[in-house]
Structures are given as structure tokens and as C-alpha cells.
Amino acid sequence: MTSATAEPEIMPYGEFLTEEHHAIREMVRDFATKEIVPKAAAVDREARFPEETFKSLGKLDLLGLLVPSEYGGAGADYRSYAIAVEEIGRACGSTGLSYAAHCSLGVNPIKLFGTPEQKKKYLPKLASGEYLGCWALTEPGTGSDAAAQKTTAKRVGDNWVLNGTKQFITNATHADVAIIMAMTNPELGRKGISSFIVEKGTPGFYVSKVEKKLGMRGSPTASLTMEDCKIPAGNIIGEVGEGYKQALTTLEGGRISIGSLALGIAQAALDSSMQYAKQREAFGQSISKFQFIQGYIADMATQINAARLLIYHAAWMKDHGKRVTLEGSQAKLFASEISSRVCNLCVQIHGGYGYIEDFPAERFLRDAKLCEIGEGTSEIQRLLIARQLGL
């Protein structure tokens, strides 16, 4: 980066991005700067889900960015989506997380694997913002072992009956539609897992616990419990036993989005650090003149640029129909870990002010940590990368 403001748009990234991608960035950034940034601190402090922001995101076609136009969406590519997540996350980590969870997890499984009837029924409402979506895979006691599903789904006549509990589900408290992973045939292990659409208000389906979190406080995380929850037989996504395979595909795209979220938070931390370093004076000069501060900022900018290239490359591959198991995991791993590193340096540059709520540095650091855990921990990413390398 050669600009003193470290703005991403000065880097064309070769053939990864087109003029349309740059236009989407400008549009999202303009909205985020005006509508999201001013309330980001309050959203975090009050642990408040910004419903009004999501209504506006729907009107801008951003909630349906990946949804085909025939279902009311924008029909954009994954690079456009990665840019949108980055810019929203740069403005507010909480809003960025809920946005990514809605698009990648709440919408994509229906878009990719749903029946024509399911797509017609749910995608237009998810794209417009009338509905918010969530995806429920993780369970208490299973963590990263996605195949260890204890939630069950049994076919009873023209219905499926679900029983079990899901944990750490983003958007669970506000979601109108939840995609639930459940075991339909325990004897088959991961090949016995299926996925289902469950609507808010279905008898036997409820939020059982709301979590209090270190960061991303404005993005609700909760447990979902099903007790003899009866849904129509037509609410299964795809065929019986295809759920685990669907989950792997969903997570591949989701990792790119979490990497983009981490990138946005890191960029915000760099922006804040540069602004503060220029304004703060010590020993008769701006602290930006001290070599160790310059070194910190140089490292931050370099790491952010490297992460952005990894993410855009993975998104480009996905747009060209290629598998991104390796590239998505690498992008997510690197971006999330450098985000925590960059945000930690942001606090250090701010000194005592970085440790208090008057400045956003402490919020950046708290928010960034989630990206090393959600949608596959750093340890899981390393395992996936090693396997893709043939180990």
C-alpha cells in the first residue's frame, strides 16, 4: 500500500476484480459509513441486533446478493459477496457476522440444494429482508466434530419429527427460517445426516439459551431446541443422507466469508491506528514518526494485503466453479489469525486509550477473536489444509 490512508480501493488486484466489483465496494462502503459506523459502538455495548440495518440491507439487494435474480436477488458473484462482507465488517463486526451468517449459511443451502418449491417459497423473502436466516450444525459437546450429530429426525407419515439441541447458532434469536442438521439414520454415521428447513413459530421449536459473548455482541448467538418438532416431509433439503455433504459445501463458502469479515475488522483496526498515530503526540512529535510505530503499521498493512489476496483468489476460484477446500481454508486461517494480530497491535499503538471503550480498538480485538473459532477453528483449518496437501 502506498497511500497514507491504506484504502483498499487503490489496489486493483489485477484480474481478480472488475469495475463492477469496485462499484459494489463503493456502494457498500458508502452505506456502511453513513448507516452502520455511527451505531457500531452502541450495538456492541447494548448487545443489540440492529434490525433496522438489515431492513436497509434488504432494500439495497445486499441480503440477496448471492440469490439469482429470478428469486428476487442480485445474482452477484462470490467476489462481490466477499467485498460486501469485508466492508460491512469494517464498519461493525457484529453486523458483518450476522450478515455473513444470513447469506452464507441461511440462504446458500436453500439456493444450492433446495427444491424449486423451497427456492420459490423462501429465497425471495430471505433476499428482501422479510426473513432472516440461520444454520444450525453445532451441538453441545460436539464442537468441531460436525459428523457427531445427536439431533434426530424421524419420518412419521407425512412429517418429520425433530428432537435435539443446537448450540452457538448465529442469528438464532431473530431468524425466521432455520436450517437444521439432524441424524436420520445413526447406523450410517455421517452418511445418515440430513438437513431440514424449520420455520420460526413451529410448535416444539424454540430458543433455549442466549449466550453472553466476549465480542460480536450485537450479533445474537443462541441455542435452539426441538422437542417433538413436527415439520412437513417436504421441508427436507435434497435427499435423505445428503446433509453432511451439503454442510461441507456450505462451509467452504462460509470460510471465505469469515475470512472477509476478519479482513474488514483488521482494515478498520489499521485505519484507526493510522489516524491515532498521526494525531497523538509524545516527546514533542507525532508518534507516527517513531520507527517502531511505523514498523507496526507496515507489518499490519502487509499482512492485510496478503490476506486480501488469499481471499480474493479463493472467491475467484469459486466463481469459476473450482473446489476451494484448500484455498478457502488457507484464506480463512490466515485472515483470521492476522486479524487478531493486527487488532492487538492496534490496541498497543493506542496505549492506555486502546484499553478503554472511548476508542474502538478494544472492540476490534474482541470481535476479531471470533473469526479464529467460528466456521471451523484454526486447528480444524490446519487439519483440512494438511489433508488437501496429501498428509
Q: How would you describe the overall organization of this protein?
A:
With 391 residues, the chain is of the alpha+beta class. The protein folds into three domains: 8-132, Butyryl-Coa Dehydrogenase, subunit A, domain 1; 134-241, Butyryl-CoA Dehydrogenase, subunit A, domain 2, CATH 2.40.110; 244-388, Butyryl-CoA Dehydrogenase, subunit A, domain 3. 50% of the residues lie in helices and 15% in strands. It contains ten helices and ten strands. The strands form three sheets. Strands 1-4-5-8 form a four-stranded mixed beta sheet, covered by helices on one side. Helix 6 (243-279) runs antiparallel to helix 9 and helix 7 packs antiparallel against helix 8 (325-350). The radius of gyration is 21 Å and the shape is globular. The two termini are 36 Å apart.
List the helices and strands and how they pair.
Elements: H1 19-45, H2 51-59, H3 78-91, H4 93-113, H5 116-128, E1 133-136, E2 152-156, E3 159-170, E4 177-183, E5 193-199, E6 205-210, E7 221-232, E8 236-237, H6 243-279, E9 281-282, E10 285-286, H7 291-319, H8 325-350, H9 361-370, H10 378-388
Parallel strand pairs: 1-4
Antiparallel strand pairs: 2-3, 3-7, 4-5, 5-8, 6-7, 9-10
Helix pairs in contact: 1-3, 3-4, 3-6, 4-5, 4-6, 6-7, 6-8, 6-9, 7-8, 8-9, 8-10
